[in-house]
């Protein structure tokens, strides 16, 4: 498959699908060939906006297409399991927007299916592939800050309360944890390289029964700690810091769309790496990585491996249990 053009289809034409469509346009060797939405009248204008040749008002017609190599699932969280399974059942490689599923049981089913069918499957944690985050991993791998002792990361924004908005709708698996908390949790998982041994979580549960804001303290083998938080009704600093025995690494400003990383060690001058990219290209890095895996016949990404995604969902399940969050997907 070397050099093969990857023809993508998109399930769901909401806001995040626009970022994917823009990202595909910036990637050589990838084309957005078809889009689908189950909301009447939504797929056609989306397709016209991005010059996509085919559009559908159901998902089945898209995944049946023989000329579609890979599917990006951009629906609300509660439909991820259903849509990924549909695509895998039709032999498609799949990139699924974070969080992968609503719970670990759903994800284990999908991973088992993908592995049985030897199909590529990956969580769309696009932040993992940004140049600045790659630099962070290099510094960690090189032992620049010694043994990691603490990670601090927050992601929160403020939107007006609207019970009909997906972020406040329990039927759509809304709330800060699944939508925003996945970013600091995934960042800590990347840094720590293993699951936490102890989890303590607290939250403010809003009027619709989902968390408006929540915080998580994770303790790892050897005593390292991650202190993380997320919010959808509170603007946070959205920065990340990794503290080690010999220094620290800072990802300033909005860490999940990092364009810089700073290494500080004692009295030495800080080492700052500016690694900018155009805003519209933020998804292009993960699309490039996923397409390359598919061309090579690989079934998962070494940067965002499936077992780590399962581990993350296990952590989220434990947090949900502590916070009393139960979604319809958890009951099925």
Strand content: 15-25%
Overall strand count:
14
Considering DSSP H and I runs of 4 or more, what fraction of the residues is helical? 25-40%
SSE string, helix = H, strand = E? EHEHEHEHEHEHEHEEEEEEEHHH
Q: What's the mean pLDDT score?
A: 97
Tell me about the largest β-sheet.
Answer: 8 strands, mixed
Give the CATH topology of the largest domain: Dihydrodipicolinate Reductase, domain 2
Oligomer: single chain
Architecture per CATH nomenclature, i.e. the level-2 architecture of the largest domain:
2-Layer Sandwich
CATH homologous superfamily designation of the largest domain: Dihydrodipicolinate Reductase, domain 2
Overall number of domains: 2
Which parts are unreliable, with pLDDT below 50 for 5 consecutive residues or more?
Answer: none
Distance between the termini: 39 Å
Rg computed from alpha carbons, rounded to a whole number of angstroms: 20 Å
Write down the overall geometry.
globular
- Strand order, sheet with most strands: 8-9-10-7-11-12-13-14
Record the SSE blueprint.
Layout: E1 6-11, H1 15-25, E2 30-36, H2 43-50, E3 54-56, H3 59-63, E4 70-73, H4 80-89, E5 93-97, H5 104-117, E6 121-124, H6 131-141, E7 148-156, H7 176-192, E8 198-205, E9 211-219, E10 225-231, E11 240-244, E12 247-251, E13 260-264, E14 271-274, H8 284-295, H9 306-323, H10 328-331
Parallel strand pairs: 1-2, 1-4, 2-3, 4-5, 5-6, 7-10
Antiparallel strand pairs: 7-11, 8-9, 9-10, 11-12, 12-13, 13-14
Helix pairs in contact: 1-8, 4-5, 5-9, 7-9
Explain what you see:
The protein is α/β, with parallel strands linked by helices and 332 residues long. The protein has two domains: 6-125 and 283-300, 3-Layer(aba) Sandwich (Rossmann fold), CATH 3.40.50.720; 131-276 and 312-331, Dihydrodipicolinate Reductase, domain 2 (2-Layer Sandwich), CATH 3.30.360. The protein is 33% helix and 24% strand. The chain has ten helices and 14 strands. It has helices spanning 15-25, 43-50, 59-63, 80-89, 104-117, 131-141, 176-192, 284-295, 306-323, 328-331; strands at residues 6-11, 30-36, 54-56, 70-73, 93-97, 121-124, 148-156, 198-205, 211-219, 225-231, 240-244, 247-251, 260-264, 271-274. The protein has an eight-stranded mixed beta sheet, with helices on one face. The relative contact order is 0.17. The model has no long low-confidence stretch (mean pLDDT 97).
């Amino acid at each position: 498959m070397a050099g093969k053009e990857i023809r993508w289809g998109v399930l769901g034409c909401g806001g995040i699908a626009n970022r994917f469509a823009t990202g595909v346009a910036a990637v050589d060797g990838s084309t957005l060939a078809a889009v689908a939405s189950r909301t009447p009248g939504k797929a056609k204008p989306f397709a016209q906006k991005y010059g996509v040749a085919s559009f559908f008002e159901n998902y089945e017609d898209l995944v049946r297409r023989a000329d579609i190599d890979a599917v990006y699932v951009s629906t609300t969280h509660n439909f991820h399991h259903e849509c990924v399974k549909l695509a895998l059942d039709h032999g498609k490689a799949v990139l699924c927007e974070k969080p992968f599923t609503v719970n670990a049981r759903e994800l284990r089913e999908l991973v088992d299916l993908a592995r049985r069918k030897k199909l590529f499957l990956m969580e769309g944690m696009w932040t993992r592939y940004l140049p600045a985050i790659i630099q962070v991993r290099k510094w960690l791998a090189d032992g620049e800050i010694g043994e990691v002792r603490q990670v601090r990361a927050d992601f929160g924004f403020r939107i007006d309360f609207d019970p009909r908005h997906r972020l406040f709708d329990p039927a759509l698996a809304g709330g800060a944890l699944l939508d925003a908390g996945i970013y600091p949790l995934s960042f800590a998982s990347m840094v720590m390289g293993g699951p936490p041994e102890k989890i303590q979580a607290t939250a403010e549960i809003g009027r619709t029964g989902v968390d408006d804001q929540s915080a998580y303290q994770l303790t790892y083998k050897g005593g390292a700690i991650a202190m993380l938080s997320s919010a959808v009704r509170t603007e946070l600093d959205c920065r990340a810091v990794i503290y080690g025995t010999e220094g620290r690494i800072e990802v300033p400003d909005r860490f999940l769309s990092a364009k810089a990383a700073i290494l500080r060690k004692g009295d030495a001058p800080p080492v700052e790496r500016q690694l900018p990219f155009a805003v519209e290209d933020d998804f292009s890095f993960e699309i490039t990585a996923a397409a390359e895996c598919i061309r090579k016949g690989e079934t998962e990404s070494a940067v965002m491996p499936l077992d780590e995604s399962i581990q993350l969902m296990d952590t989220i399940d434990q947090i949900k249990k502590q916070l009393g969050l139960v979604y319809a997907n958890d009951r099925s």
